[in-house]
Each structure stands twice: as structure tokens, then as C-alpha cells.
Amino acid sequence: MIAESCDLTFTYRGANRPAGSPVSLAIGAGRIHAVTGPNGGGKTTLLRVLSGLAPNVFSGRVGGSGEVVGSRLPLRAGPPPEVGVLTDAAAAQVTGVRSTVAGEIGIPLENRGWPQDRIRERVSDLLASLGLVALAGRPPMMLSGGELQRVLVACALAHEPRLLVLDDPTLHVDPAGLRDLGRLLTREAGRGRAVLFTASCADEVGVLGAGEPTRLPLLRDPAESDGWEDDLAPAGTETVLLAMHDVSFAYPRGPVVARGLNFVLRRGEVVGLVGRNGSGKTTLARLALGLLEPDSGRVEVRGRDRRDRPAADVAADIGVVFQNPQDQLFKRSVLSEAAFGPMLRGASREEAGRRARAALGATGLLWHRAANPRDLLPSERRLLSLASMLAVEPPLLILDEPTAGLDSRQRALVRRAMRLWAGRGGGVLAVTHDLAWAAGCCDSILRMENGRLGPAGPGVAVGT
Fold first, then answer.
1. pLDDT (0 to 100) of residue 224
2. pLDDT reported for residue 62
3. CA–CA dist 464, 40 (Å, integer)
């Protein structure tokens, strides 16, 4: 066996119980194995133990027994050379030593002393297999979230490890990218490698070539939404919240990513925006927010040209949840995080607290109100960013990948919150690859392709 465990647990330092139930599994050469279950059940913790990140980076105590590539657990020397790892903080794995995607993928091979001709051959193969050839010369940090995720999978796999450990490798990846990733993992398993990955959404398991997954249960009862229909409401009365008129944009020394965009978002609407990684979806959201200025055309927020309004005025009208929500969190408790926005807008402490509790109830986080945001799960931090925006009561919400990394219960919470928000007179623009969620939540779905915007039905397979 490449990796196996018997009643394996891990208790983080300072915790009074293990982070999940005991896990017993066996992964042989040539196998692809998935671990699923609700967030908080211990999926990430299991991968940290099997990769050697716990207890080396994450302090704590390993229980049970196990072995990885011939070494007994715990792996006190850290990840063995025969293991390739993608963590739940994927972007933090970018070394920055090389300025291009191709150079970044080659770093693990340079560190192992591979000859340059072999490095070029391996990097070229991975770029082609993951649909990244056109991005080989781009800086890694200029990629979309899904493009960067595939690059980091390539980095983990580059040195041909015996065991590949991937934490949520499908995060932000579009359907076409998922198929490329599935074909690559299947090929590498055929060459004798073992693959272990986590998935928040069970639908992804089969696409990546795995058989029956190991499902980890949640040891506590999940918090329920407390309801807030009468507690929060978007501001204003204007019918049109966001309009783009013939908007075009290109990054300096880069391709044109927006070509003559025209669309209108009205009160009471939830609009989904789908498309391939790198098609310009996030760029459209940044143009709406004023983080980017169009090269031509006009953006209107609540009926006024955005360029004629102070940035702070526009910011009061739009609540945004970015692709990496941890970048938006800075307070010491969940409750104070959710209350910060209303207080910044002039609400009293009592009013801000009322709104914060209502928003946390809507997102299932009220029971976490005393916790430090940094101690939350990544999926809970995403929900907290959404709650923080709801508490401000902006007319328009722009959400970049609102369901990324969320389990089925959390996806349902977001859907319910968005429908209630629209029902109260707000508007929502949701940038997403989660087509099933969009079909069940959105009034209409738009598709970005080659910088252009057009309609897309709920059943459209993006990227085909």
C-alpha cells in the first residue's frame, strides 16, 4: 500500500477532542481515492496528517496508526519527497521564485536537480494536459482562481510523486478544466501513482476518476439559519441598480478581456455570470465596482455614471465578496467583523449588533459569533464575508464564487439568503462555476466568452 491508516485521528493543540471521527483507509498504487462529507468533518485534517503537515506545521497529537510511502505516522520530518501536496491555502504555495507559470511548475524539479531538457519536457506535458499552454508565459499571480488552482496541481505532480495529496483541487475550476484534471489524474494513476483528494461537492468525485469515496461525518449538529426576513433590507428605491453600456477593457500589455459589454441588473433579480476560467468574469465585477476603469463605455450604479460619484459613495451601494474571502477579514471576533460595516456607515453600536446577528443567523454562523475569524473553516470564512456584506444592507451584492468550497448545506444557506435578499428588493450578481446552484438560485444566467457577454440557459455546460 502507498498509504493506509487505522482509526487515525488528530487533535489540534489546545483542542479537547479530535478534529473528526477515526479514519481507516488503504490507498494502493494506481488508485484514485476521494474523501467527502460536510465541511468540519475532518477532511482537510486527514490530508494534513497523511502529507506530514500535521503535526509539523499544525501542532497537535496523532491518534491511531498509519503508514505513508513506507514511513509510519506521524511524519515528523514533514512531507516525504515521494508525496506531492496541494493544501487548502493553495495560493500561499506560489513560490514567486520564477515570474512565469512554466517557471513556477519547474521549481520542484530544479530543487531535485533534474536536467533542463527533462524539466522542459515534463513542464510542457503538464501544461498541455491541463489546458495551460497559452498561460505558460504569464505571471502566476495574474491568473484567475481556477487557472492558478490547475497550475498548483501541476506543481504538486511535477516531480512524479508516488502519492498525490490534493485538498479541494476543483476549487474555482470550470467544467472544462475539471475534465482536463480528471484525465490527467487518471493517466497518472495508470502510471502507478496513488491519488487522494477531498471534495466538498460529491458530484466532482466521478469527474476526477475516483470510485466510492470515504465519507467523513460531522461530529456536531450543524447550526441552523435563524431567519432574518424582517431584520435586514437593502437601501434605496431605484429600479436599475447596475448597468453597463458598451464597456471594453484590456489589461496593460495583455489581451482584451471585455468587449462591448451591455447588461442591466434590476432590483429583485439574482443574475448568475458563468464562463471559462480567464474569460473575464472577475474583470466584469471589478469594472462594476470601480476597481478597474473601462477603456471605453460607461458603468452606471443606481442610475448615475460611476465616474461622477466619489468612490466611497459607490462603495456604500455595492457589497462585494471576493474570491479569497480571508483577505476581507481583520477583526478579532465573528460578531465584530459582521458589525464593522454598519458601524462604519454610521449605525449605532446597538443597531450594528442587531444587523450583525441577523446576517450571521442567515449564514448559519451565529453560534460562532465569539470565535476569531481566522479560526473558522475556509467555507465559514466565505460565509462570514457574505454576512458582513448583508449587514451593511447595500442595494447590490456582487459575489465572486460564493459557493466555492461550500458543502451542500452551506450552498443551500447561500441560495436562501440570495433569494430573500432579492425578495426584499436587492439585486445580486453572482460569478460562479457552480451551474447546479446557479440554475436553482438565479433568475437569469449570463455567459462570458472571449470577452463578450451573452445569455446562457441553466443547463448550459460552460466551456464545451
1. 53
2. 97
3. 34
| 431 backbone dihedrals φ, ψ, rounded to 5° | -85, 120
Cell readout for 364 is 448559519
Q: What is the DSSP string of 54-88?
A: HHHTS-EEEEEEEEETTEESS-TT-S-TTEEEE-S
Cα–Cα dist 448/464, whole Å: 13
C-alpha distance across the termini of the chain, in Å: 38
Query: For 3-215, which CATH superfamily applies?
Result: P-loop containing nucleotide triphosphate hydrolases (3.40.50.300)
At residue 403, what is the residue type? T
Per residue in 312-363, pLDDT (tens digit) is 888 889 999 988 888 889 999 999 999 999 999 999 999 999 999 999 999 9
CATH 3.40.50.300 intervals, the chain:
3-215, 240-455
Residue 113's alpha-carbon distances to 110, 116, 154, in angstroms, are 5, 9, 18
Query: CATH fold of 240-455, please?
Result: Rossmann fold (3.40.50)
pLDDT tens, 420-446?
999 999 999 999 999 999 999 999 999
Dihedral sign computed on CA atoms, order 377, 382, 383, 387: positive
Q: Which of 57, 61, 49 is nearest to 25 (CA)?
A: 49
User: 4: which 3 cell numbers?
Assistant: 493506509
Rounded to whole angstroms, the Cα distance separating 69 from 372 reads 37
Query: Which stretches of 374-434 are DSSP H helices?
Result: 378-392, 408-423
pLDDT at 227 exceeding the cut of 60: no
